[in-house]
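Tokens for chain A. Residues wanted.
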């Protein structure tokens, strides 16, 4: 590797959803059906100037929580050469 970063402490599953979780065909078909219902309700609500106050059906998706991997954590990983979140490290200025 170019930067010699240690990947032993990095757990991919905590920060990213897998391809199967993102492109699950069951959720895709449910969301297409919900979109077919939601679009006419949206236009009806738009035409009536929101006087009907219609409730839209919610889109479905994966319920597994993933942590945020931000740029600050990536820079900390680059400086420390092993994966640690920015909350675990305290830099003295």
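Reply:
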């Amino acid at each position: 590797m170019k930067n010699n970063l240690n990947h032993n402490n990095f757990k991919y599953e905590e920060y990213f959803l897998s391809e199967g979780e993102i492109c699950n065909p069951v959720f895709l078909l449910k969301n297409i059906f919900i979109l077919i219902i939601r679009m006419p309700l949206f236009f009806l609500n738009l035409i009536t100037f929101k006087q009907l106050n219609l409730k839209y059906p919610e889109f479905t998706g994966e319920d597994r929580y993933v942590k945020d991997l931000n740029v600050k954590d990536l820079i900390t990983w680059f400086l420390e050469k092993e994966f640690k979140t920015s909350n675990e490290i305290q830099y003295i200025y």
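The longest helix spans residues 25-47. Helices lie at 12-15, 19-22, 25-47, 71-80.
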